[in-house]
Description:
This protein is an alpha/beta fold and 253 residues long. Helix content is 47%, strand content 14%. It is built from ten helices and seven strands. The model has no long low-confidence stretch (mean pLDDT 94).
Amino acid sequence: MSVDLKGVRALVTGAGSGIGKAIARRLAAGGCRVAATDVQEDRVSEVARTIRDEGGDALAIRADVAKQEDVDRMTAQTVSAFGGLDVVINNAGVGSAAFIESVQDSEIERVFGVNLVGVIRVTRAATPHLKNSGRGRIVNIASVEGIRGSGLLPVYSATKAGVIGMTRANAVELARFGVTVNAVCPGPIQTEMLSPLLANERYHEKLIKGVPMRRLGVPEDVAGAVAFFASEESSFITGNVLVIDGGMTVKAL
């Protein structure tokens, strides 16, 4: 069931596939006008077409959140098209797997540039418009890897921990303007980012055994929670970090 988002104007980064695509479609299904952005223009254009075919209102924008000029352009384009901005979903992200002693500077810069600096830049550009909205919402897509420790993921985990810290800090800063800031931390979700690992049958089985619900999540599991945080029903909830992992992190405690 969709929450009521009629007339709400939203920007979703990384909307070309996976969790971002599911979020954009879920928001649109609730009546939201969606600016779907992604570094891959063909993918995000297809997502916008799908939303329009489903009766929704969507705009496709190619943008790389690691580039300040792209962030400024996509924000201005969204505000111009919709007459303002009410919701920002910071979803764009890239994966990384390497032991700390072998990780390269270029990899550190790439992952931080999208996963953390990109979130900072998008939030900075959007904040003046969210303040003017009267019902501003920021939802950051972090990860359980920003909470727990995992081998091979030091850089990725650091960026997601940073997103969680930024969520809490911005929640305090923006509360007086009526802007809420929350984060969701997905666990193992079946997306392209995870698919190379899932191709290994032993890893796949081990991963599922680590989830008390005995299944992997799907992008729609995350999209529903994001839609709630974007809605009026969450108006007194801010600074929260919601874990969506089928009980995986609870089991590890």
